[in-house]
User: Fold this.
Amino acid sequence: MNHAQLTALGRALRVLGEHGEALSADTPDAKLHEVKADLRRALELLDETVTTDVPRTRCPEHPTGPVDESAPDLCLLCETRRRAARRAEYNGPAPQYQSPEPAPSRYGVRGDRPQPQQRWLPELWNGQAWQLCGTPRRDRREAELYLAAQRRGPRPAMAYRLVHEFTDYEVLRVWGTPVKVDIEPMGGGL
Ligand SMILES: [Zn+2]
Assistant:
């Protein structure tokens, strides 16, 4: 928490305290709306202050990414790229290979350098085992907020946990030369 955040949060919380002091049976609705707005403001400030992820690596690009203890910058994502680059250098060019006739694919497309994917899985303890209790999220904070809301729900489970899923992709070898070609319009010209 920096000084500006501390000041703003302190002010917002003191305002809420004053609202509590002034509350009585004949507090008008307009005043309650004001309390609501101030409460929301304080929550927003608190969100900004506490949910910022703590940096876990020394990588400027992925400070909160997965950790590889053996990497100089502790960054698993960058270390994976570096390893792939070293391996490509070591293996040299792939042998010549006659590729089969190119066929249109019904599968998805992927970038030149497939990026690792991360997901955060909310799970609950059902008394016997951990079980998924919501949609896996691409955003850690979103998953944490979801679990926090579950815990505040009417019938919360005994325990919850957040699981980090990390799926990495690595191009092991390329056969042939992927040259970009123009797409011909269907049915030919006019
Ligand atoms: Zn990195």
Observations:
- The first strand starts at residue 117 and ends at 125.
- The helical segments are 3-22, 29-50, 76-91, 140-151.
- The pocket of zinc ion is lined by residues 59, 61-62, 65, 75, 77-78 (CB under 6 Å).
